[in-house]
Amino acid sequence: MALASSINCVETDLTAEFRDQFLLTYQHMLLSRVLEEKLGSLYRAGGRIVGGVYLGKGQEAFSAALGVQLRKGRDIYGPLIRDQAGRIAFGEPIIDTVRTYLGAVTGPMRGRDGNIHRGRPKEGHMAMISHLGSLLSVVAGGLFARRLAGTLADSIGATSIGDGGTSTGAFHEGLNMAAVEKLPIIVSIANNQFAYSTPNTRQYACENLVDRAAGYGIDGMTVDATDLASCLKAFRAAAAKARAGSGPQMIVGTLLRLAGHGEHDDASYIPDKARQSPSARDCLQVAEDYARDHGWMSSADLRELNDEVRRNVDQTVSKVSKEPAPDPFKENWQALSCAELVEGQHEA
Amino acid sequence: MSITYLEAIREAQYEALREDPSVFLYGQDIATFGGAFKATKNLSKEFPNRVFDAPISEDAMVGMAIGAAVEGARPIIEMQFADFSSIGFNQIVNQAATLYWRTNVPCPITIRLPSGGTAGSGPFHSQSMEALYAHYPGLVIVTPATVEDAYWMLLDSVKLNDPVIFCEHKFLYYHLKADQIGDRELPIGKARIARPGRHATIVTYSAMVHEALRAAEELQLDGYQIEVVDLRSVKPMDTDTILASVARTGRLLALGEAFPWGGVTAEIIARVTTDGFHLLDAAPMRLNSKDTPIPYHPNLWKSHRPTTSTIAAALRRLLRN
Question: What does the alpha-carbon distance between residue A159 and residue A66 come to, in Å, rounded to a whole number?
């Protein structure tokens, strides 16, 4: 029986452990925001970043609240475009982000792919391709193989998508398969109301995307994705249920993308009405206010944290800027791991 | 006692499952039912919890195999028909084929495509997809034409650390038999001289090898000795063996059952004319299916694909030039 419910953070649930997780997640969000602002300014300055820059501004709480539930090396994470915060929370060092954006040969993608298309699959961080929805079955497959090998234990998988990505066949096929196999996977849907420029009304016809959970026979929850406390509660509950064998968990977060699709996009198609709605609250600010109101952080703590994060980002960018770009003459140009089967090594 | 091409595929999967606990099978109707063609007959009984029915979701089937491969498994995916792999196309060419190059993590998956035409199968149960997949970097495309190759190349495919598109021809499933499976003779990537000759070379693969051999028999009555090269794998393509054959005969007919635009036969001609133009005594020829969808009625189907008589006619033209 699928369950659609809504999460509201109740004051009595605020244990010390929750506070620690909240503050940790907030740090991931802040680091993500500062890092992405830096990447945006490098992009606008021109020359350093080829291709686009895709920001998760406004989605940090929803993204990081999932990432922080996962354990690198034990869980499998398939993040998407706006999951810088989630990737940090999962344990990706920001130098991997910067190296990938700058195309450094030292990075995980070695200049072969860029920006958000990065990962270290052997560490459980899947590297997204651009075809939306196609990572869901891949994460599910990793869990399936572990179950076959008897190594699943309490590990789970998680993958993210947006409102637009839920319209793909791959998303449907992957989620249905994961449901049939009752795999421990969290599917987080950031409904940021616009898929590039296309509004929800041109994307789906159900009242709420979470209604679809019942059709898949899985649990579904909605959450105010601008509110970190609610997001943490939702994803903690989902992770616990997935680990306990309850099968796929769908979480739909409502928010607004506070940036363009990429930095090339001024998002002029987002109407003022949407920009003034509660879903347009900046989750970083909401989290800051929440922490301050609960006496968990002072303004001085916040300033200190901000300075530290900025130093970290600046130092990382500066270090990577001195690293070598890929050299086409040192590139092996082999798409197969079996070198003896590689073609085209003899052309003129 | 004899073994068919189809039984060889079943036996290879049996052996792969027996040899390596990381191998599992995933596909539609392949568990208790044993597959639409019975290529996995009894395997779910013999290997409990290793052979799984999949939903009708070719995209998710391939995606799942990729994720499993990252975790160290060696999945074999059965597409019910090669034609339906178009639904899994994105996962195959964009996810599986690029994974190693992007992330340095190999993707050892084998995707079995029951390929090619049989009478009455029509436009959507008859296709040959090898050229499409061969176009993309990062995939190995094998096209066995013999019972031995069906067996050994499938076993070899499962052991390869790269994604393999295993194009098995449905026309050969029941008709092609061997007394027994002989020893492994050639690795993937090496072509085989299926018949030696000196007047012209046919380079082909899969079921067309047998049509080519019959055409060569026919030409022998006219005193011509036709060499037939069985590519075995279309990617990698064994250009050296092709060129060596053309060096012996001076004439080339590139033959394939697939659609005519681009594709394997065009690739053969391109390689021979660029690397071996001086070896040719006549302009090379190509023979493929017609450029229409594959027809249903046997009368139309037989005229759509190359047959012994159209191959023989092409050879006669080639030898006159």
Answer: 9
Which tens digits make up the pLDDT trace of B202-218?
A: 999 999 999 999 999 99
Amino acid present at A33:
R
Contact with chain B for residue A339, Cβ under 8 A = no
Strands A249-254 and A185-191: parallel
Nearest-CA distance from B59 to chain A in Å? 6
Tokens linked to A134: 């196609």
Domains along chain B with CATH numbers: 3-178 (3.40.50.970), 192-320 (3.40.50.920)
Cis peptide before B293 (omega within 30 of 0): no
**So where are chain A's domains?**
4-341
| Residues of B with a known catalytic role | 125
> Nearest CB to B236: which of A120, A138, A341?
A341
**Tens digits of residue pLDDT in A210-255:** 999 999 999 999 999 999 999 999 999 999 999 999 999 999 999 9
Rounded to 5°, angle at Cα A260 from A257 and A261: 90
Q: Do B64 and A146 touch (CB under 8 A)?
A: no
What residues in B contact A343, CB-CB < 8 Å?
A: 235-237
Which two three-digit tokens encode residue B161?
């650390």
Distance CA B251, CA B271 (A): 14
pLDDT at residue B1, rounded to an integer: 77
Residues in chain B: 321
| Residue pairs between chains A and B whose CB atoms are closer than 8 Å | 152
Both structure tokens of A164 = 């637009």
Which uninterrupted H or E stretch holds A222? strand A219-224
Contact between B213 and B195 under an 8 Å Cβ cutoff? The reply is yes
Residues in CB range of B254: below 8 A, 6 or more apart: B202, B203, B204, B264, B265, B266, B268, B269, B284, B285, B286, B287
Query: What is the ipTM for the molecules in this complex?
Result: 0.97
Q: B 262-281 residues with CB below 8 A of A?
A: none
Please tell me the distance from the alpha carbon of residue A128 to that of residue B144, in angstroms, as a whole number. 34
Is residue A347 predicted with pLDDT exceeding 50? no
**Nearest in space to B139 (alpha carbons), one of A337, A346, A296:** A337
Which helix or strand (DSSP H or E) is residue A280 part of?
A: none
Smallest Cα distance from B162 to chain A, Å: 6
**Structure letter (DSSP) for residue B96:** I
| CB pair distance less than 8 Å for B64 and A131 | no
Q: Closest-CA residue in chain A for B20? A: A149
Q: Is B63's CB within 8 Å of A134's CB?
A: yes
Q: Which residue type occupies A166? A: T
Average pLDDT over residues A45-68: 95
> Which of B67, B137, B140 comes nearest A141 by C-beta?
B67
At residue A312, φ and ψ (nearest 5 deg) are -60, -45
Instruction: Please tell me the CATH superfamily of domain A4-341, with its number.
Output: Thiamin diphosphate (ThDP)-binding fold, Pyr/PP domains (3.40.50.970)
| Three-state SS at B62 | helix
Q: Which amino acid is at B106?
A: P
